[in-house]
Amino acid sequence: MFAFCVTNQGERVHVCGFGRVPDGRAPDASDRGTQEIRGPVPGRKVLSRKECSVSSANFEPKIVGFLCRWCSYTGADLAGTSRIKYPPNVLPIRVMCSGRVDPTFVIKALVEGADGVLIAGCHPGDCHYTSGNYRTLGRFSLLKKLLDQLGIENDRVRLEWVSASEGDRWAQVVKDMTEKVKKLGPLAWKTTPEMTARQEAGVARG
Amino acid sequence: MSKLKLALYWAASCGGCEIAVLDIKEKILDVAAACDILFWPVALDFKYKDVEAMPDKHIDVCLFNGAIRTSENEHLAKLLRQKSKILVAYGSCANEGCIPGLANLYSRESLLDRVYSETPSTDNTNGVRPQLKVQVPEGELTLPAFYDRVKTLAQTVDVDYFVPGCPPVADQTWAALEAIVTGKLPPKGSVVGAGDKTCCDECDRKREEKKIKKFYRPWEIVPEEEKCLLEQGIICAGPATRSGCGTVCVNKGKMPCRGCYGPPPGVTDQGAKLLSALGSIVDSNDPDEIQRVISEIVDPAGYLYRFGLANSLMQHARTK
Known about the structure:
By secondary structure, chain A is of the alpha/beta class. Chain A has 6 helices and 7 strands. Chain B is built from 13 helices and 9 strands.
């Protein structure tokens, strides 16, 4: 499910995270995390993710999560089945191993509208593929140094070890990261669709 | 048969690509025999107004080197695109920003402050800055505008072919020119004058397994001649760089590759790929040790994006 915003005649109402609203009814803050918008909502304008993230007063960060299939995704799932309440700001993407996370994914997420990126994997020593998470750690350490030089604040990109039994911990990590990114405000990476198109034209050659 | 009408231009560049064209040595006479050079500021006395006076698509091929830093660079890029049938981004600056592109790590204001006030040997107590226009007794003088960011040629105009390298090596320059002169060109948008693998594929050094305990700067150790430099802890961008240069730096110069031929085919962001490679070769299962070894790499942005910052996913640092 995608995160998106819907305006109600000019007034911006955030239905970010995994929102659903029955046709015809104006969504409001209480709808967050409960219902799905099916098709175009009559009389409502759907904003792009970028437009949504730039509004100030009710800023809800969009955090892209890369969760390893064996430990972290299972741990996040446990948080769900345990019905633990936690912010819906992380968009989880399951990968087989945290070592699959190419730094390109992180940078692309930030450039394309994410306010933060959370990578989650098995604890050191417990990687299902033995050493994948050591690769993750090495790459992540270097990536943090790079991002610091590029002006991305420290709290926006984070690596956490979450095991399959740590549903509580997952919820806590998401809560903590959401708060920190909220304080930082939108990343609002200054790339216009025009620049993205030119960028893609420049790199699409083979 | 009429001669091929050729133009060469330099935007924000060091001039090395101009020399690189001459580096084909006596073959330059073949080029002169087959081509009429209509515009080449570094070597011939044609003016911008000569180009402006040409009909559209009058020039058959334009080799454009240099990045787009100022309004003059942009104007010539657009003008030469209009007047040329084939526009070639020649050299790393035009392809991916190259060294001028590193300015994208800083804001325009901080660049001007550094150059005009902060450098140790500058005495500019009045804070003088260049202006776009000034009146003098003889009339009005103008300067091109200095843009916020460096852009590549393809981010400014439509480009037909890409010849990478800083500079492109002589053999590849000749190969590209020959393809142009004989008309045997690949589909539009292709990279010409380069291979389709990574530099490691062409390298003579022996590669076994990449696992290191420490990263070394090139001056810190005397590396073994036969062994892969990265396996000895010296950062080499070979794994993330397109082949085609003949590995002159590593095999003849005995120095690590720095990535001037740009990303290999299929790679969007060369720096991120090199980062991924370097981050994954630490020989340790101890998280603290891994982090410590990685922390020894100084200036990742400058190393990973030395040539390709302007053409990377981020294109520039996030500055005020």
